[in-house]
Amino acid sequence: MPPQASLALKASLRRIERRQSLLAFALVAPLLLFLLVNFVLPIGLMLYRSIDDPEVRAALPRTAAALDAWDGRGMPPPAIAALLVDELGKANDSGDLSRAANRVNYDINGLRSLVMKTARNLPTAADGDAAQALAALDGRWGEAETWAALKRATGPTTSFYLLGALDLKRAATGEIQALEAERAIFLKVMARTLWIGFCVTVFCLLLGYPVAYLLATAPTSVANLLMILVLLPFWTSLLVRTTAWVVLLQKDGPVNGLLQWLGLIDQPLRLIFNRVGVYVAITHVLLPFMILPLYSVMKGIAPTTLRAAVSLGAHPFVAFARVYLPQTLPGITAGTLLVFISAIGYYVTPALIGGADDQMLSYFIAFYTNETTNWGMAAALGGVLLVITALLYAVFSRLAGQAGPRWA
Amino acid sequence: MSAPYRTRGEIVWQIAFRIFCGLVFVFLVLPIAAVVPLSFNAGQFLTFPMPGLSLRWYADFFASEKWLAAVSNSFGVGMATMLLATALGTLAALGLARLKPRPRAAIGALVLAPLIVPVVITGVGVYFLYAPLRLTNSYLGLVLAHTVLAIPFVVLTVSASLANFDVNLWRAASNLGAPPVTAFRRVVLPVILPGVVSGAIFAFATSFDEIVMGLFLAGPTQRTLPIQMFNGVREEISPTITAAATLLVALSIALLVTIEMLRRRTDRYMQKARPT
């Protein structure tokens, strides 16, 4: 072939290839755009909210600027008090002031009412020095801690929420210290979330492994029938299953009735609005997620390997532990991580079946978003949960060898 | 399983194993097996033994404006989610199949991410974005949020059916002069159709079952069935809820059977298509 012709052929091939990949990207583009707007952007927005601190700056811009310039030691210069009085007078009756008062209240309980009260009873010019007039109105304006909290809230960004999510706070002097014991709840909630996830994963593995083995080794007709028993709850609405457990586990529900009828107990057991109910319901919801990956791995293991080990003289338990179990490890990894990652994000089931001491991280995220509208705290807790999930998923991808399914 | 020579220990072990598995199966179906009969209870209380059978709780359900509104909301939002997710997901799966491995893996990971990120996180983020846009308390916002959660299933099922498809057939059709749309309709679509329909059903089921996004985004007008049930269980659990639950179980069975039939159809098709 003459060189020009070969070059022309190469160029035309390249052109076709480029057109092909352009077409491929054009097909993917709508979905990509959709996910960027409705998934990536929202999560970015949530993460940004966890450090965003606009409320006080919006309501009292000049006071905020003056507080920025102050070094935070002792009492602020009197000029700041005068600025505050002036701006409170202008901001009164606006939503901005109410939001700013909420923000400082997250830091020190009671500051919301102090700010709102002060805005309603502002000292006039006739009262003389603004700092003294404020302190006369309420003693807390004479305390350095009040002004330090105001300074901490001036933004534009803050570590307040993220530190709070880890039960930490920034002291007036700027160093990080532990939150007071009665306000430090989130480390406990995190530990509880991980512990519930761990327990549910163990229960699912203990219940799911034998069932998956049975499904993988039973004759096809039996296995197909039994598989329906696994798939039916898998397909049933989460709310239906949770509702059903609420009905079943009630004080005078069927489970207690059966146990009493059998004579196993005299008094009805407390099975709901406590940890027992949470374990039962979440394990039930996630059990198919353990059984299905285990089953698909076990289906590919020749049963003859086990028989060969036994016929060569191994005790059946030894044969199982040394020959069969190692071959099922990929299924165990996939199942446990799938169950664990799902369990730590659960919200609805613990909210309906658990008591106050059984609520997990998700509950507090929803609580701060919907009930108290402390969006900064909700965002910070969401960030923590996202980081935990991402770390677990990274482990999962590493162990599974390849992220996600094969894209053929 | 059927080894001829077994010691007594092995037989005892085998029996214990089967009893254990039997109990796990009972655990798996117990909630459904209990709720369905209770919905036909003639009495007020959700306990066995039941005083008699009646359809009064179904009558209650179909007479309640709240429940009927929830049913129509769930179907409406579910259908809209299904259409949007199936369109976006099918196109993307077709594109992904033609991409080079590296961009394919990266985009694939993004598409699957909504399955892995806890829904509460996505829900809070979407709420922060939609609130200033006035998309909270609106059907549109709910459909968009459900579509995010439904898309991974569509892409997965369509990609799986494309895995069995020889892309050269598509190229051949184009080379033989078929316009792209014709080549797609006559060559590609018949092969991937079961995957597309499965994906659509998954998308519908995802939306129909979704509650967390709903709790963040739906106002009183947009209340779906799961939200209505959530509120019902929270306030006071009445037997009407068991009637609603039974209707939902019936719907799940219908969807499960449809998916299973589609899967078998694909299997048969692939067996026939395999060269002998």
Structure description:
The complex is a heterodimer of chains A (408) and B (276). Chain A is an all-alpha fold and 408 residues long. Chain A has two domains: 55-178, no CATH class; 186-400, MetI-like fold, CATH 1.10.3720.10. Chain A is built from 19 helices and two strands. In chain A, strands 1-2 form a two-stranded antiparallel ribbon. In chain A, β1 (168-170) and β2 (176-178) form a beta hairpin. Chain B has one domain (64-273): MetI-like (MetI-like fold, Orthogonal Bundle), CATH 1.10.3720. In chain B, 79% of the residues lie in helices and 0% in strands. Chain B has helices at 8-38, 56-63, 65-98, 101-116, 119-130, 139-163, 167-175, 180-209, 212-217, 225-235, 239-273. In chain B, α1 packs across α11, α3 (65-98) crosses α6 and α3 (65-98) packs across α10 (225-235). Chain B is globular and about 70 Å long. The two termini of chain B are 33 Å apart. The mean pLDDT of chain B is 87. At the A-B interface, α1, α10, α11, α12 and α14 of A face α1, α3, α4, α5 and α6 of B.
